[in-house]
Design brief:
The chain has about 260 residues and is an alpha/beta fold. The protein is about 35% helix and about 25% strand. The radius of gyration is 20 Å and the shape is globular. It starts with 13 loop residues before the first strand and ends with a strand. The model has no long low-confidence stretch (mean pLDDT about 95).
């Protein structure tokens, strides 16, 4: 008999496999699959045997794989969460789509415009659903703002949005988030993604800011960005125009 939990699972549940058992999977995806009433953590996959064993013991998926192709070959698997390093997001998502699986990929969706287009083409060919892990669209406050914009506000004139990463955040998250289990055998991309902090911050944090702006205002058709770096702080002020004629101003500042 299965152990009793407080979660009432629906009869029909999506069978999900998580690729990558590193930090973001441990912070979010593994537990979310276990908690979801309409999904099951069906499988996990990681190149590091020790990490795979540890996460398998903790979250008890039905299947564990050390090879992504083997997981994708499982006909019972319906959807894949790509929770790897950024450089692997597009190639692994394309693999999953071509294997006939739906995909939820972590942000940033890719590390270049060109590979993003490749992924968009693969989605079209596959007929499958691809979602990006922009969880801020599901924040209750932002959802409420979206309802107001769509329902009560009337025509939008301008949108101002900021994303400022605070130096205080890290002391707090270190205290409340789980201690991450790491492995020397984890698969890592060549080079250091943080070698160019301008690129890294725009991908990691700017993707949230831009996605939230698009959530509220729709497609963006013009961008005019100004950048300043001082005393190890990085600041972008970005003037934008939306397809619907709305003006926008985006502020990305790291750290405050």
């Amino acid at each position: 008999t299965e152990p009793e939990t407080m979660i009432r699972k629906q009869d029909r549940r999506l069978r999900v496999g998580v690729l990558g058992c590193g930090p973001i999977a441990q912070f979010a995806h593994l537990e979310s699959c276990v908690k979801a009433s309409n999904a099951d953590l069906y499988a996990i996959c990681d190149a590091a045997p020790d990490l795979l064993t540890r996460m398998g013991a903790t979250y008890e998926p039905q299947k564990m794989y050390g090879d992504f192709d083997a997981m994708l070959a499982d006909p019972e698997l319906e959807a894949v969460i790509v929770a790897t390093s950024d450089a692997y997001h597009v190639p692994m998502s394309i693999k999953a789509l071509e294997a006939g699986k739906h995909v939820l990929c972590e942000k940033p969706i890719g590390v270049s415009v060109e590979e993003g287009q490749k992924l968009a083409d693969a989605v079209q060919r596959s007929g499958k659903v691809l979602q990006v892990g922009h969880m801020k669209r599901f924040d209750a406050g932002l959802e409420s703002a979206k309802d107001f914009i769509d329902g009560e506000m009337g025509e939008m004139l301008a949108l101002k949005a900021w994303y400022c990463d605070s130096t205080h955040r890290y002391a707090m998250t270190d205290a409340v988030q789980p201690l991450i289990v790491t492995s020397a055998g984890s698969k890592r991309p060549t080079g250091n993604p943080k070698a160019d902090l301008r690129r890294y911050f725009m991908l990691a944090h700017g993707s949230h800011l831009l996605d939230t702006a698009r959530y509220f205002g729709g497609p963006i058709v013009e961008v005019d960005a100004h950048f300043r770096e001082r005393f190890n702080a990085y600041c972008w002020f970005v003037d934008i125009a939306f397809e619907n004629g709305t003006f926008g101003h985006l502020d990305l500042t790291i750290p405050v």
